[in-house]
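In this section we walk through a basic example: taking a raw amino acid sequence and producing a predicted 3D structure, encoded as discrete structure tokens. The instruction is simple. Fold the sequence below.
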Amino acid sequence: MFDYFAGELLAQTEPRLQRFLVLTALLPRFTVASAAALTGQDNAAALLAELDRRNFFIARHAGSGQGDAWEYHPLFREFLLERGRRQLDPDELARARSEAAGLLAAEGDAQASIALLREAGDWRRLVSQVLEQAPALLRSGRFQTLAEWILDIPQPLRAGTPWLDYFLGLCRLPYDPAQARELLSSAYTGFRAAGHAVGEYLSWAGVVDTFVYAWSDFVPSDPWIDEFDALRARHPDFPSREVEVRAVAAIFAILMYRRPQHPELPGWTRRLDALVAQDDVDPALRMTAATHLLLYYEWWTGNLARADELVRRIEPFASARTVGPFVRLAWEGILAISHWMNADNAAALAAVKRGLALADETGAHVWDFMLVAQGAVAAATSGDAGQARDFLARLRARQPGQRRLDAIQYHFFSFQEAMRRDDRAAMLAHGHAGLASAVEAGVAWGEVYARPALAQALFLAGDEAGARRELERATQVASAIGCSNAFYYMHELEVQFAEARGERPAQLASIARMFQVMREQGFSNSAWWRDDAMARCCRVALEHSIETGFVRALIRRRGLRPDGPAARLEQWPWPVRLRTLGEFAIELDGEPLRFAGKVQKRPLALLKALVAFGCTGVPEPQLAEALWPDAEGDDAHNAFVTTLQRLRKLLGQRDALLLQEGRLSLNPELCWVDTLAFESVGPDGDPAVADDRERALLLYRGAFLAQEDAPWTIAPRERLRARFVRLGGADVRHHVEGADWEGAVACLERLLRADATVEPFYQQLMRAHHRLGRSAEVLATYRRCRDVLGATLHLPPSASTEALLRELGGSGRGA
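The resulting token sequence is shown next.
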């Protein structure tokens, strides 16, 4: 019906106007100037005005610069286009389409221009325009559009133009790296035959990119690595800065994956780093090059300081308009790695979320597995086992076997999940599968990840020789390729192996090496991180003064929970540390609490009373009765509340004091108290706890709250002193039973320095000196006992001490 009325309307116009309508319909929208140029009619403005006046299905749009724009109703335009196909001579129509395409191209409407050139069969101009538009389309992520344009070109014409294969290869790169490699290889052959340096370098770099995007088998890249030497020989100077960045980034990347021990890799690393720092390099190129460098610095060399500086320098470009979605997609993955390696797991998970959303938006899921894998690391190393399992399920759903480097990561994370379940059979299976994928991929970095995991599984399966073999091989590979961050994991495994074998010196040596690597490289997280294992290593390191500054900082940064018996945790970086055995002291974050003005006696009295009553679950009335015995009812409660507030402010840690259902406690995760650590060790003579017993005895530096005379200090003071005597006696027996008399003397001297009024210690010291043949020391010890007891307790030595002196050859009271 519309065509009928349009035909009637068109029939009423003169032939010149009909021609004007048919030709201008080739343009989706046009100006007076473009209409005049296409139709050759100088009175185009008047004709358009007449059409507008006569309501010829035409709309006028106000414009600027080139003037108003005109547009036919879509149905009327289709009618005119069909009329033109019937009325115009084919050659004339083709020429008109080509001219219209030129006008559209000049106005920036490439898509409409190319559509007209395709209809006109003007392949020469179409190829020229496609090649002109290709870089912009690639930058904006319009890969499918560009691919459709190129595929519309007849194959014989494409075969003679290497650039078309080059750009089509780049279009297929994120979706089908294998097909992209064929196209880019063909382009390289064509460029090489023509001696086209720019094309050779760019297509060679594109071929290298296909191996990275395929993320699978790097062995076939060997001929292309060798070809680079020939390429450099033919064209020793890079044709442009852009070509240089692309080529250097490509040779760096392929050497990093396939030949990380190559002698020229350090040189290419420095050159690429310098290029990335240049301000005249396109932001998208800088980001692409930076992703390779960051992966090298973070996963290969462990140079986190350099990686962090690079992230700060490049991150602002992520929002640049010239940076396409596929560059940003890879950047989000690398950013996630950077964040979790710096223990900022929340930021890593945010980067993963952004990357996966961008992949859904663009339809390019080539890096999905890598993104999800980084999410698994961030979740697992932040202690969120549930989220880590969810990410692992997503990895499993993505069929990791199709890409070998994906398979390495999948088996590694599955290995860790099996380890958390203590499923040793699954650990062994994933360890073997991960190593097989690494060897098949031909990527040494994969072996550095897979071999230590297999070593751990073999060790737990009882194959110590196999575990040692894999660990030694991993060490060799890591040393050869300079993968220093892997040594952290290998040293941690050495710690576990030595601990399981009961080899304490070897365990301490491995702990020292592990923390040295972590300190030198700035590590605070890794894909192998486990809070429980690291907390245990930190505790042992602090016990033996190993890298104490770094270890304490690591504990604070990662929020590690204290591990092991309280007696072994004195050096842990507690927010609050209380000493009550001997002189009362408070340490806040390792620094003694000092008062700028008047000492706050009441808050300190509340703290002392809380410790005296056991530190945990002490009823408010019990504390009120001890501190405010004369207060009644609300007065005592109000005094308690006010004093508690003051004490919390004094400690600077509100959560250090927990008040629940009227009972006050010291938070055991924030506060260390010497009495609790002292009483955590049993007084029996078990040799297995001899080290802990000695630590506990060293905590006893004097009587409990020796300067306090409040009634509520008496019972805990006597209880703790009695325990000190029992512990000391057990420790002395440990030395005596082993005939270690010198050790017994040293032990007793330490005990007497802590409490010089324990008469049984003097008796044991006299016996020890006697066994060593030191008669003078026996008599001197007796006199020391007599003088101390007389001066402090106003008592003479007991009858048993006098009898012992006579037994050992002294002369009793006359001595």
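Looking at the output, two observations stand out. Residues 180 and 517 are 41 Å apart (CA to CA). The mean pLDDT is 90. In the next section we compare this with other chains.
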